[in-house]
Automatic annotation (TrEMBL):
Signal peptide as annotated in the record: none
Residue span(s) of domain NAD-dependent epimerase/dehydratase: 2-227
Protein name (database record): NAD-dependent epimerase/dehydratase family protein
Pfam families in UniProt: Epimerase
InterPro entries listed in its UniProt record: Epimerase_deHydtase (IPR001509), NAD(P)-bd_dom_sf (IPR036291), NAD(P)-dependent_oxidoreduct (IPR051783)
Matching Gene3D superfamilies: NAD(P)-binding Rossmann-like Domain
Domain of life where this protein originates: Bacteria
Amino acid sequence: MILITGATGFLGAELAKLLVTMGNNIRCTKRTTSIIPVLLAPFKAQIEWVDADLLDIFALENALEGITQVYHCAAWVSLKAADKEPMINTNVTGTANLVNLCIERGARMVHVSSIAAIGLAKPGELTTENHHLEESAENDGYAISKLESEMEVWRGIAEGLDAVIVNPSLIIGASAGKQGSGVFFETIRKGLKFYTIGSIGFVDVEDVAKCMIAVMNSDITAERYVISAENYNYKDITTEVANGFGIKPPAILAKSWVMEVAWRVAAFVGTITGKAPAIDKTSAQTASLNRDFDNSKIKDAIGIEFKPISKTILEIVEVLK
């Protein structure tokens, strides 16, 4: 039996859909307040939903009854400064609870981390699985939570856990709608004027799910994989997206100092309104960095051929139109 945590989220829902269409009956955890995604509505008969907060060890024990494979996709994501410490505690403690139960039950785990937990390569080099974030120099609460969650998985591996860690780059896909990474596309559709000098890796959500299933059903264990299809600079991808919408591409370069001003203004507005800032310090600084990734390890391991990002962009644009 297969268990997915975080199946109400963007990646988790795509993973659940793919597993079900492959003929699997699966169990998915959710919070009592969570809404089951429309994407999974046609598969009610194949999915068993259980209410189980990752901090509720007793609920988790029940959720893992009879489970042999666990896909851990659940994580709290927030830009609010007030959420930093509780987010770190929730993500790390929840992962630790799941790791301990997987060891106890002999279940195999694929843990979804993030490129946020991977350090920076030297200028001109590609980032690989061998790069590691320096926690002491990191201020991004989400990045810290993903790094420390990874550490819990590695601790579990040292104690006998059969597990693989995946670190997806920026996950995009039509099913995101206007949420998550969909905000990026919706912002361009509304007439974004600025672009930055940085670059980053992108990957289709379906490809991430395919990679996860492939490594789960392999003999691979105690490994970490960057999951990224292509590296794009922000000018090129905003131009391609704008062209897809049939609108004028962003034409003004937002230099580093402009981004520094932007996050400070956003933080001030967020303080007044109580809402998460549109951009935080880490996002503003990252937008001017070149974060390009080497995907050769995962390609060599499972032979995946990634969907061209240009094709994914067209699919997203059609949905948002």
